[in-house]
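Forgive a beginner's question, but would it be possible to get any protein sequence you like and the tokens describing how it folds?
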Amino acid sequence: MPNKKYILSLALLFSTNALAITNGQAVNNNNYQSIIHSQHCTGTIIGGKWVLTAQHCSTTNNTYTQVITSHDKKTTNVSQQINYRDWNNNGVDIDAALWQLPYNIAINHITIITPSPVKAGQDVTIFGYGGTENQLNKTTHRIIARSDSQKYAISLNNNYQGQTVGGDSGAPYFDKNNHLVAIHKGVQFQPNLQSNFAIGTKVSAFKNFILDTINGWNYPTNINNVIGSKTITVQSLHNDVIQDQATTTGDVNIDFNNSSCSSNDLISPYDTCTYVITSHGQRGTLNLSPTESIIVNNTAINKDKDEDKDKDKEQPIINPNNKSGGGSIGIFIFTLLSLIAFKRRK
């Protein structure tokens, strides 16, 4: 038995799937609504209904259904998995995948993705759900220079306050501007140095994969409590330059003078711009395209629906004398039972 325990301990030590963010810092899930998790990995919602994660998180031959859990603990089945290896034709296999969902996930702000270079000496913060069930954690590490690293990979010194591997595969790496610059691949143990290195894949390595697959906007899908003006940031993940074509419905209007998206300038891939909208607090939509809409003040319409449901409920029956009909029936039954008891005594 002791030998079995020793073998198990070694297996846990060297397995990249057994560990997770440990000694990291817990964060409020609601502040990072675009970060989600599947059964075994972490991912990021982009473009409304796409999940960016690591390719090795995808299932093969439909062995089981991938299910993602969003910040509010709601679950959604993945409808399609698109791996980098299925898209590329240059013989290079990058550990990145995009999973398509059947509908948009409710998020109130986006994670901006940038293919800009990342360099040694730069700090990145990793956000992951690995080993913590539904609690999101973060840890910050510094990118280190390694002569043996592949050009599309980055290495982090993983010996600080939080160590991240395993269930954090696919987790986003944020730079100091809170832009996603890489995703987590795994951990590499260096016996000669007695050190762990976290390994990530740069967005710059699969930037065209994102554009060709999504070819749309990266946008928040659901924004509530808008009374007055609100600035909304969106990002182009189109595979070519585009121009603004936004429209609105309901209680939403665009302040064109203060919206950078409406400046008539061409918007290039990975560019961000803003819409300034106004609302009186009622429901409406900001339509970025015929198929991409941001729902504004969705809770307002839900409240109205709840009131309508209450109106539809059957009202209690009130008798003309303002006495409860149920009370009158109770008196009648009591009298009837008294008469039956009286007859039995006879």
